[in-house]
Amino acid sequence: RNTAYPNMASLLAHPFYREAIDRAAFKTVALVATEFSNVTWRDGLTTAEELAVVSEFRQVTEYLLNTYAQDGKTFILQNWEADNLLNLELFPDQDTWPAMADGLVAYFKARQRGVEEGRAAAGAHSTSQVWHAIEVNYNWGAARAGDIPVPEEWTALNRIVRDGYRDHGLLVDLCSWSNWSSKTPGQEWRLIIGVD
Questions:
Q1: Is 133 in contact with 173 (CB distance < 8 Å)?
Q2: Distances (CA, A) of 188 to 32, 170, 192, 193
Q3: List of residues 6+ apart from 14 with CB closer than 8 A
C-alpha cells in the first residue's frame, strides 16, 4: 500500500488522473472503483467495514463533484464484474453461497450509501454528476451452453440485483453488463437477447 494515496479521492487528485479526466472530450468517465480499506464481505460486513466503505465512497463522490463542479461531467463508480467478484463456482459447498451473496449485497448497499451521502454533502452547486453502478457479467439470456459455471438463480443479475432489491432493499443508480458473450463475430444477436 502506498501511504501517499490512502483512498480513491487522493489517488484521483494525482496529476496523471487529473490530466486524463480534465480533458474536455471526456464527458462521461466510468471508473472501476474499489475502496482502499481492507474489507471482506464474504462473511458479511462488520459495522467498521461498512462505515469504511461508506466513508471512502462519500469522499470520492465529494471530491469529484467539487473538483469538477463547473465541468458538467458524469462519473460512474462501478465494480468489476460482480459474478467474477462473487466467484461462487470456486466454493463447492453451496450452503455457503447465501451468506456470501448477502455479504456482497451489503457491500453494494454501503457503496451506494456513500455515493448518496457524497452527493448530499457536495450540495447542488456542481454541474457534474456521480452515479454508482453494479456491473454484472453472467447473463443467461445471452450465454452459450456451458459459458456460465453457476445456476441461473445464482448469477449476480438474479441473486444480487434482483433478490438484493426484493429481500434487502438494495437500490443502485445503474447496472451495467460486461458483455463478453457476444464478442464472437456472428454472435452479435446474443447482445439483443441479453438486454431483453
A1: yes
A2: 25, 31, 8, 9
A3: 5
Q: Which residues contact 188 (CB under 8 A, 6 or more apart)?
A: 182
Give residue-wise pLDDT tens across range 21-68: 999 999 999 999 999 999 999 999 999 999 999 999 999 999 999 999
Cell 459459458, residue located: 147
Separation CA 151–CA 155 (nearest Å): 7
Cα–Cα distance measured from residue 5 to residue 36, given in angstroms and rounded to the nearest whole number: 9
DSSP characters for 124-187?
Answer: TT-S-EEEEEEEE---TTTPPTT--SS-GGGSIIIIIIIHHHHHH----SEEEE---TT-STT-
Contact between 103 and 85 under an 8 Å Cβ cutoff? The reply is no
Any idea which residue has 433478490 for its cell?
A: 163
* Alpha-carbon span 137 to 132, nearest angstrom: 17
Let me know: does 107 contact 146? Beta carbons within 8 Å.
no
CA–CA separation, 87 vs 42, rounded Å? 11
With a threshold of 0.70, does the pTM exceed it?
yes
